[in-house]
Amino acid sequence: MLVVGLMRLGDQEARLQESFPDIDFKFYKHPSELPIDVQQEMDVLISYHQEVNETFIENAPKLKWIAWYATGVNSLPFETLKEKGIQLSNAGGVHAQQLTEFLFAYILDDYKELKEIYAEQQEKVYNRKRVTPSVKDQHILFLGTGKIPQRAAQVAQILGMKTIGLNTTGHTADYFDETYPISNRQQVYEKADIVVNLLPETVDTRYLLTTEDFKVMNPHTLFVNLGRGTIARETDIVNALRNNSIRKAYLDVFEQEPLDSNSELYQLDNVFLTPHISGSHADNKKLATDIFSNNLKSFLNNGELIENKVNIDKGY
């Protein structure tokens, strides 16, 4: 069996070769370095590159499984994968701790007014009269209730927050006090002080949030987007912030990336931007390789994946 990686995995390469001595592993820095004869012979592909498109897959006739080393799989040609019976796994959950830490960095930066305090520091103002609100008893609403939202909701509960989750059917999920169908979201926003998007990009979630969604949120709502920038049009977010439909936003992902230097978001004083870094962590490759290793053991045994298998029909 030939397993090809279109990225270098550092010490994880030796780990895989030691754990699976009968497997032929080949690693390349980028898809552009992949020899066509290797592409035609590979059984398993490790990648997260947009170059893995329909044409690429057509040139890999023996490919049986793509191990995607990222969470979002929306760039892949699902119809081609389905037609050829290629299995797909992702790295969902790998980013849970890092994303959760960023989320609460944003929330506490806001609630504890750290930017305002720093501005006073710059003016040499020693203000002991400042009193900040607590996150305890605040209602935090998550778009999505998967592995990452569950980890974030767990931390929220430890801090004494009330957790609300929106998913496809309203089914219960760990660490959520309440769950509702995402189709009912506009009736649920009134419960929330903080709204957090952690949904993947699919046909159903692309531009899910509209101007009307922001209009029916509480005016004091803090909006945080750590999922996908295509959850809403940039213009709708800008208008919601300008019109004070919501109080403030922290955004790590954008409709178009990289964010254009002329974006109106840069002109607002009630939004704070990070450049799609909330999931970046030094251990991501190790954690993704943990998932890959568990799946490879099963794949060698019976051809099935046991962890993070993507439903091709649903897109996640």
Written account of the structure:
The protein is of the alpha/beta class. The protein has 2 domains: 2-93 and 283-314, 3-Layer(aba) Sandwich (Rossmann fold); 95-273, NAD(P)-binding Rossmann-like Domain (Rossmann fold). Helices cover 32% and strands 16% of the residues. The protein has 11 helices and 12 strands. It has helices spanning 11-19, 36-41, 54-58, 78-84, 96-111, 114-122, 147-158, 185-188, 211-216, 234-242, 284-302, and strands at residues 2-5, 24-27, 44-47, 65-68, 87-89, 139-143, 162-167, 178-181, 194-197, 222-225, 248-251, 271-273. The strands form 2 sheets. A 7-stranded parallel sheet has the order 8-7-6-9-10-11-12. It is elongated, with a radius of gyration of 22 Å. The mean pLDDT is 97.
Short description:
This protein has 316 residues and is of the alpha/beta class. The chain contains eleven helices and twelve strands. It has a seven-stranded parallel sheet.
Kindly state the number of beta strands. 12
Strand order of the largest sheet: 8-7-6-9-10-11-12
Which strand-content bin applies to the residues? Answer: 15-25%
User: What do we call the CATH homologous superfamily of the largest domain?
Assistant: NAD(P)-binding Rossmann-like Domain
Return the CATH topology of the largest domain. Rossmann fold
Overall structural class, as computed from helix and strand content, comes to: alpha/beta
Domain D-isomer specific 2-hydroxyacid dehydrogenase catalytic: 18-304
Pfam family, one: 2-Hacid_dh
GO molecular function: glyoxylate reductase (NADPH) activity; NAD binding
Family: Belongs to the D-isomer specific 2-hydroxyacid dehydrogenase family.
